[in-house]
Amino acid sequence: MVAVAARKAQELGLGTLACSSTGNLAGAVAARAAAEGLEAVVFCPADLEPEKLTAAAAYGPTVYAVDGHYDHCSRLTVELSFELPWGFVNVNLRSYYAEGSKTLAYEIAEQLGWRTPDVVVAPIARAPSSTRSGRAIGTPADGDFAVATARETGGSIHAVPEEAVGENMALLARTTGVFGETASGVTLGALRAAVRAGEVRSRDRVVLLVTGDGLKTPAPVSFTYAPIAIEPDADAFLENLAAVA
Fold first, then answer.
1. Both 59 and 113 in a single domain?
2. Looking at the structure, do residues 83 and 115 belong to the same domain, yes or no?
3. Is the pLDDT of residue 140 over 90?
4. What sign does the dihedral 127-128-130-134 (CA atoms) show?
5. CB 40 within 8 A of CB 105
6. Does 179 lie in the same domain as 116?
7. Of 101, 128, 163, which residue constitutes the final position of a domain?
8. Mean pLDDT throughout 172-199?
9. Predicted local distance difference test score (pLDDT) of residue 128
10. Nearest C-alpha neighbor of 20 from the set 42, 51, 40, 52
11. What does the mean pLDDT of the chain come to?
12. Is residue 134 scored above 60 in pLDDT?
């Protein structure tokens, strides 16, 4: 996705690739800019978890921590796009970035053996004040389009309670071996709600979109960490193991 935007930036003679982000886009922009020899600039909320930008920072971008939430970052980058000769991936390059996003559909079809899924679950419910900061966007640029698409295709939209996000993250990890970030807790929660509502059938082929690695947002699943203290004695361990069994 960012590769398409970066190529257009180069075509336009823009030497800086920039974005507003809560983590994932920042990493993609910083990585692509490094690969293409471009400067990278990232605007993020000041209270964003450091884990979400540590990987992005390794590529050497300039990171600006904005005093506010994501919508403030977004508005700032829109204003700056009129003042600076930079390629803002999610502003003046957004149409090209969106074209790159379409490749997701092809990847899904390819991984399903060129069969289309019956259901695709993505995190699009509005959550402007939330620890799910990757989805904490009050006015997403394509929000209306996403909502319209869900409705026009016979889909639905489900809000997921804050307290259920960590539970869903852990459930996804232990049942599939996939540890996703907080947004995955939203998608799985929405899928579970859709199943309960009878909107998804047991025979449906379902694709659950996991948009990032859980190592960036481990706090919600910290409740799963409960190690058992033991002595460095194999015999004692085996005896205790047998007693439990």
1. no
2. no
3. no
4. positive
5. no
6. yes
7. 101
8. 95
9. 40
10. 42
11. 90
12. no
Residues 93, 30, single domain; the answer is yes
Note the pLDDT of residue 32: 96
Sheet holding 87-88, edge to edge: 62-66, 39-45, 16-20, 87-88
CA distances from 35 to 6, 29, 70, 182, 213 (A): 10, 10, 27, 28, 22
Q: Are residues 12 and 89 in the same domain?
A: yes
Dihedrals phi, psi of 33, to nearest 5 degrees: -60, -40
Q: Domain limits at 57?
A: 2-101
204/166 Cα distance (integer angstroms): 26
Lowest mean pLDDT among 8-12, 38-42, 52-56: 52-56
Cα–Cα distance, 158 to 125 (Å, whole number):
7
Q: What pLDDT is attached to residue 127? A: 43
One DSSP character per residue, 144-178 reads HHHHHHHHHTT-------GGGHHHHHHHHHHHHS-
Which of 101, 116, 146 terminates a domain? The answer is 101
107 lies in the same domain as 93: no
Q: Is residue 231 in a domain?
A: no
